[in-house]
Specification:
Aspartate Aminotransferase, domain 2, Aspartate Aminotransferase, domain 1, seven-stranded mixed sheet
Length: about 375
């Protein structure tokens, strides 16, 4: 079986975890602080705040930006459901804006028409790691006095106009995921980067019950420290065991991205020219980490896409549908009623994610490409 994804973990991560366990400190502590510093240095951010996953990072980022009940946040429907869920958690309303079908990211030209008096923020999603049009979205946000928050769940190792995603050039809050399907993984986990020291302090309060003094400070203090709880917070902490894995992963990042891009180039070469298949290639002004390798079955509908995926599975090849259209999910139709975003819907029904992971051999990739050619729908 050729799996869809497989995290690259090795002896370095095992050694770091063993060392952490032996230290006796396994919850949020010194390893988390070390991982935050390493991550911030890697993406060029002033501050990095580790959290339990990207969804919780989005949630507290929205809170830190002042998003609350009655507010609206503009977001793409073409994303994992967590992007919109984090907005609902704040009591706010997601306002969906359709995608550019060539990039699978929110179309900035459609954003101004979605802004209302209730709009508080724009959430830019870097879908499958491909950077969104940050310059244009930042311009729109600045003109209208809105916050810009990046859902960079998939985008570690990608860059936009020569700047790493996460360095806060275009937005003050950027959220990453370390789920096993992402480029680097801590089993689960997340990180928020910011250039604002005040925001960083607020995020650290929010992630740990609003506690004024964290466990590390209390346990290393030579005098008795009694904490207070000035704000309502959450239990959104990353553990030191996870952070130990993250330290090993961040050291591997450049090699991981290089290998993924090499595999994507091999896919491009093997699958180009097939009439029924559309490929998504590198944007001119970005470096794409290829968190997923996505193809589009031209003109297909969901049943034809699923039949194609089933034939791949029967050949021992895992795949997944393209990105969901959140507005079609029952929990959103019940809240918001029926909505139509044709570009997102078409991409959801026509796109397929193919296997891509650093340990994938060229022979396995060739096997996948042969099966794709064999089972591609007639044009």
């Amino acid at each position: 079986m050729i799996p869809l994804a497989r995290p690259e973990l090795g002896e370095e991560e095992i050694a770091l975890v063993a060392e952490t366990i032996r230290s006796g400190w396994i919850t949020q502590g010194p390893r988390v602080a070390e991982f935050e510093a390493a991550f911030a240095a890697r993406v060029g951010a002033a501050h990095a705040v580790a959290v339990s996953n990207c969804t919780t990072g989005l949630h507290i980022s929205l809170i830190a930006a002042g998003v609350g009940p009655g507010d609206e946040v503009i977001v793409t429907p073409h994303s994992y459901i967590a992007s919109a869920n984090a907005i609902l958690y704040c009591g706010a309303r997601p306002v969906f804006v359709d995608i550019d079908p060539l990039t699978l990211n929110m179309d900035p030209a459609r954003v101004p028409a979605a802004v209302t008096a209730r709009t508080k923020a724009i959430m830019a999603v870097h879908q499958v790691g491909r950077p969104a049009d940050l310059a244009e979205l930042a311009r729109i946000a600045a003109e209208r006095g809105l916050h810009l928050i990046e859902d960079a769940a998939c985008a570690i190792g990608s860059s936009y106009r020569g700047r790493p995603i996460g360095d806060n050039t275009y937005s003050p809050l950027v959220c990453f995921s370390f789920h096993p399907r992402k480029v680097i993984s801590t089993g689960d986990g997340g990180m928020v980067t910011t250039g604002d020291a005040g925001l960083a302090r607020h995020l650290r309060l929010l992630r740990q019950h609003g506690m004024s003094v964290n466990d590390l400070v209390r346990h290393t203090s030579k005098t008795v420290v009694t904490e207070s709880y000035p704000i309502l917070g959450y239990n959104y902490r990353l553990t030191d065991v996870q952070a130990a894995i993250g330290l090993g992963q961040i050291a591997r990042l450049d090699g991981i991205v290089a290998r993924r891009r090499a595999l994507a180039a091999r896919y491009h070469a093997a699958l180009s020219g097939i009439p029924a298949i559309e490929l998504f290639t590198d944007p001119a002004d970005c470096v794409w980490n290829y968190q997923s390798y996505v193809i589009r079955l031209r003109g297909s509908r969901a049943p034809a896409r699923d039949a194609f995926m089933q034939r791949l599975l029967e050949d021992g090849i895992a795949s997944r549908r393209g990105i969901m259209s959140i507005h079609r999910e029952p929990c959103y139709t019940e809240r918001m009623g029926p909505q139509s975003f044709p570009a997102s819907e078409a991409a959801s029904d026509q796109c397929v994610c193919l296997p891509l992971y650093t340990q994938m051999s060229d022979a396995d990739l060739d096997t996948v490409c042969a099966a794709v050619r064999r089972h591609a729908p007639a044009s």
